[in-house]
Amino acid sequence: MDQVDPRRLIPRTNDLLALPAVREARTRLNERVVRELVRKVQEQARRGELAPGKVEPALLAAVASLKATTLRPVLNATGVIVHTNLGRAPLSAAAVEALVAASGYVDVELDLADGSRSRRGAGARAALLAACPAAEDALVVNNGAAALVLATTALAAGREVVVSRGELVEIGAGFRLTDLMESTGAVLHEVGTTNRTHLHDYAGALGPDTGCVLKVHPSNFRVDGFTSAVPIDELSRLTAAHGIPLVADLGSGLLAPDPYLPDEPDVASALAGGADVVIASGDKLLGGPQAGLLLGRKEIISRLARHPLARAVRAGKLALAALEATVAGGLPPVVEALHADVEQLRRRTDRLAEALGVPVEAHDGRVGGGGAPGFPLPGWALRLPEGIAGRLRTGHPAVLPRVHDGVCLIDLRCVPPTDDDRILDAVRQALATLDVADAGRAG
Ligand SMILES: *Cc1c(COP(=O)(O)O)cnc(C)c1O
């Protein structure tokens, strides 16, 4: 008798699609995605890589672990608070709530009382002005880079932006603020030298072609030694006398001074010093969603808001909702991580170290994300073998440790204390598989 071709035993598409778990998956995943999964599993069986009887369980396992998003939550155990590769600032509970509420239809640009169209993002604007009374007006755009492009385009396209050579910053991934500004059609008029720029350098550059003067906070590097820069309050007297707008790009997004970061500029002080417009990011030290904040003088902010480019860089409703709640709600995780109590960090680290039988060492966290460069945040870390790092990153939950000097370090500064036990489990699992692998290699 002929043998039955095992391929004929492979379950049919319609039967697989009708399985209860697969039907459930078809309600939370796109039909095309589910069918593709079915096709892949059948294909494996046709190639003989999977027995026909194993098709159904393989499909069920695949369907159970498949989500509509491929973005995976990560526990940040690097000690770097504003981690650009991890999406910068984690949102506060208030911001998350606002984000979810705004995900449906929401009155982002509507006055519910009289049914007319209203100013977009009025709530976020009001929250920013309440938190920063020195600002006459505020505008929120897509991100800090967009804020800078909008300001330089509206104030200086076809004219000059006067900027110090000590402040020509590359902000990461090869993006230079200078290229960004030149892309707007403004001409950069560089003054001073890399290490020293004086008031007379600016004074000599101002003229009928000057569109604005720009101060950029060198947020991700430090020049030490024989240096000098002109502070905003001195520069603003010069620009005001010439009737030229002074734009200050602070980067970080601190609205008011933080005694913990004495060298980090803040919006309130820059405005008090006479800056006409201040630019900051929403997702750095402010601890909110990706956004670019422009705060300052009423005439200038409305000039920017009316510019056609403003429409191309406007903030979405989700960002506006989360930003307002970040400013008006409880402390965001970024601020908590920055001010984390060292003793408490030690106790949390010790507890995990004891449970795991691994050593603890002193470890400095960092602000990151181009903020407070070189400013260490003293703390502690679990010390683990380097080989465990990959397993931690790809485990459940995913944990990103710091790998440094041939060891893998777990710093709890940016981990919510309620997640300590998840870290413990993740490290246990990773250590166990590492031991197995080591034993395998030895044998
Ligand atoms: C981070 C930064 C920017 C860019 O802001 P994004 O929100 O990342 O677009 C611009 N200028 C300075 C000084 C910065 O630190």
UniProtKB/TrEMBL annotation:
E.C. numbers: 2.9.1.1
One matching Pfam family: Se-cys_synth_N
Keywords: Cytoplasm, Protein biosynthesis, Pyridoxal phosphate, Selenium, Transferase
Keyword Transferase: yes
Top EC group: transferase
Co-factor(s): pyridoxal 5'-phosphate
Coiled-coil ranges from the UniProt annotation: none
N6-(pyridoxal phosphate)lysine, modified sites: K284
Primary localization class, coarse: cytoplasm
Pathway recorded for this protein: Aminoacyl-tRNA biosynthesis; selenocysteinyl-tRNA(Sec) biosynthesis; selenocysteinyl-tRNA(Sec) from L-seryl-tRNA(Sec) (bacterial route): step 1/1
Top-level taxonomic group: Bacteria
Residue ranges of every copy of the L-seryl-tRNA selenium transferase N-terminal domain listed in the record: 7-46
Subcellular location: Cytoplasm
GO molecular function, one term: L-seryl-tRNA(Sec) selenium transferase activity
PANTHER family the record matches: L-SERYL-TRNA(SEC) SELENIUM TRANSFERASE
Family: Belongs to the SelA family.
Function per UniProt: Converts seryl-tRNA(Sec) to selenocysteinyl-tRNA(Sec) required for selenoprotein biosynthesis.
Protein name: L-seryl-tRNA(Sec) selenium transferase
Organism listed in the record: Arthrobacter sedimenti
